[in-house]
Amino acid sequence: GGFGKKPEPAAAVAAAALEADAEAVLRQARGNLDAAQAAMFQDSVLRLQQAEPELFARMQDSQGPSAAPDVHEKLVELTWDTIAAFMPLGGPPPAEVRRRLRLVASAACGGAAGGAGGGGGAGGTVAVLDVGCGDGAALPYLCEAGADAARYAGLDLSSRMLRAARASHPGVRFEQGSFLTAAAAAPPAQYDAVLFNGALQFFGDQRAALRRAAALLGGRGRLVLAHANGAAFVRDEAARNPQTVLSTMPSLEEAEEIGSELGMRLLTPHQLGVPGAAPGGEADAAALDGFYLLALEKAGPEGGEGSGGDAATGRS
After folding, report:
1. Using CA atoms, how far apart are residues 253 and 147, in angstroms rounded to an integer?
2. How far, in Å, CA of 219 to CA of 112, rounded?
3. 211: which residues sit within 8 A by CB, 6+ positions away?
4. Residue-wise pLDDT tens digits, 264-307
């Protein structure tokens, strides 16, 4: 626990192909994943103290919302490097996670189906920026939904996550860096969709991040906000780990307000095909707690309504 995902059983992790350092730490912890993660994280912090003493000192003095961006980003990097070190390699995610990833991918690629992208399935042309891409788990589902791997860019702070991504998806563009400074997220780069899948909670100023993302959209582009474990999970993570998780997921009302500020329409869980969601604020809000999926969509080139519904909110 404490590292942003539900831990795998120790036996499953021990059987996976781990890098030598992670295997040694897990052996020393006698197969206890929580203990191994804590030990590896502490080792990373000690190495930071030796390699970057000034940054380490600032990290000790200030964490959480008051921390400087580079301090917080380093903490996120170390956290996800630790998670990646013990992440079993190969094999598909569980069936429910796969179903949710397909819905996330459909939300990202659906807006471009008749616009700048065009079409789903093999040979898709939708350009996607995947913020906090991790090991690239969403990429196969994005391509299945209409994304073009040649026009995909995955962005993450964790070098170990990106090492796994590059091993699984050779030839695809993955960049290590901050969304606020990375080349993949800087104009004149333009995408049909910018995806924040399990990533938005790490931004202290979510509105500023979404404004920056909206500036990268062309045509009838979409911002997709997602978390497979839901808003309730993120609230718990923020309470237990406020140094890393700076925000909770926007409520339906907050997302609608952000969309209005950006001149974009809100697409709700019901509109995005989330099972159990239903038209109306309460039903959609309840669905977000278990599986968070919303999209903000730009108007079409001639101001068309795109996915239908109310022109300002996208609700129907």
Report:
1. 29
2. 8
3. 261, 262
4. 999 999 999 999 888 877 888 889 999 999 999 997 654 444 44
Residue type, 109: C
- How many contiguous H segments (helices) and E segments (strands) does the chain have? 12, 7
If we measure between CA atoms, which residue out of 179, 246, 255 comes closest to residue 215? 179
229 Cβ neighbours under 8 A, 6+ residues apart? 6, 198, 291
Tell me which amino acid residue 205 is.
D
Residue length, the chain?
A: 316
Closest-CA residue to 268 (of 224, 306, 298): 224
Q: Which residue has the tokens 């003493």?
A: 53
Specify the amino acid at residue 196. Answer: F
Looking at residue 275, what DSSP letter applies? Answer: T
Q: Which residue, 30, 32, 75, is CA-closest to 241?
A: 75
* 184 secondary structure, DSSP code: G
43-65: per-residue pLDDT in tens? Answer: 999 999 999 999 999 998 876 77
- The C-alpha atoms of residue 140 and residue 152 are separated, in whole angstroms, by 11
CA atoms within 13 A on the CB side of 303: 1
